[in-house]
Write a structure and sequence with these properties.
Elements: E1 7-10, E2 14-26, E3 29-38, E4 43-48, E5 58-59, H1 63-74, H2 84-97, H3 100-116, H4 121-141, H5 146-156
Antiparallel strand pairs: 1-2, 1-5, 2-3, 3-4
């Protein structure tokens, strides 16, 4: 259970602040929702409280988590399918998991792959989305702003 003011991560969207907890009637049934403001995307989403665990909603990582993310970004590219379609599906599963370490690996792998050969349009969009997710969480987990976090990510990937 999260409270108003908590910073949480919504998989595939990134980190945000719980602004309110509201009760809404949907299809004749009343349900409680977290209203989450995602500042980097300037977006507000409502998350059903009774389904938050199944959706992978979690707290933002701490200092140890930030160090682990940076370590992952500095590693070599991991094995990926050569076929872009299989690679895309594998990476999408990692992003959907909401696991920040998996997201970090996707960012690293796609940046390194893009340096070797040009990514497909779909993979470029995926890379931008994965970076946004990563940046949004690291902004809340550190004292740095969005631009500085972007620089740190780029500098970490060898």
């Amino acid at each position: 259970m999260f409270n108003i003011g908590d910073v949480i991560v919504y998989p595939m969207h990134g980190a945000g602040v719980v602004q309110s907890i509201e009760e809404k009637e949907v299809l004749g049934e009343k349900h409680k929702y977290y209203t989450l403001m995602l500042p980097l995307r300037n977006m507000k989403v409502m998350i059903p409280m009774n389904n938050a665990d199944n959706m992978g909603i979690r707290n933002v990582i701490g200092n140890d988590g930030v160090e682990k993310v940076l370590t992952i970004l500095k590693e070599s590219k991991s094995e990926m399918p050569d076929n872009w379609n299989r690679r895309y599906r594998a990476n999408m599963e990692k992003l959907k998991s909401g696991d920040i370490y998996e997201v970090s690996a996707v960012v690293r792998n796609l940046v390194l792959l893009d340096r070797e050969k040009c990514l497909s349009t779909g993979e470029k969009k995926m890379l931008n989305n994965a970076k946004q997710i990563l940046v949004s969480e690291l902004v809340f987990a550190t004292d740095f702003d969005e631009l500085k976090i972007g620089e740190i990510i780029e500098d970490s990937i060898q």
